[in-house]
Amino acid sequence: MKELLEIFREYASFKPQEMELIRKSIKYRKLAANDHLLNEGSYSRELVFLSSGIIRVALYLESGEDITRAFIPEYHFAVNFKSFFNHEPSKVNFIAVTDCELLVFDERTILKLSNEILGWHDFLLKISSKALSNKMHVLNNMLIQDAETRYKEFLKIYPGLANRVPLSTLASYIGINQASLSRIRKKIS
């Protein structure tokens, strides 16, 4: 909770009574490893803050293979912005890599806070903008970098995750097979 409150302070200047309203609006939930926070085809109806754990964003191909597109580590928000704001089905899955503890704002709560707190909408816009900017930076780098550079970039973007994420999932994210990832890891260790 402390980390979430720090993010509120970083992106907005809510009054003490507004912070109390926000705090009272938070719902708590746990996910076990491999549970889905959001399924492809479902609608994103929550803004979730990970107080612990890791979620991966994955696509399932017709061949049965899944491709990891992103990781969401603790102290970050997890939401499919396109699905949430455009009210359209998600094209990706949000899957717990580890057991997770979540702080949740459902759609109704978000609307209520928007109506009761003047700066709430601006706060949502700021975190959305930052998340999309980070996503574009990562995706652009993934398109132009070789596998070793992509792995080094992963280590920089997600410090401490390499030993908490299954090798197959990490290889999927980087876009290589597990054997190639093992060689890269040995080379740069």
TrEMBL record:
It comes from Mucilaginibacter ximonensis. PROSITE patterns: CNMP_BINDING_3 (PS50042). This is Crp/Fnr family transcriptional regulator. InterPro entries: cNMP-bd_dom, cNMP-bd_dom_sf, RmlC-like_jellyroll. Residues 10-113 form the Cyclic nucleotide-binding domain.
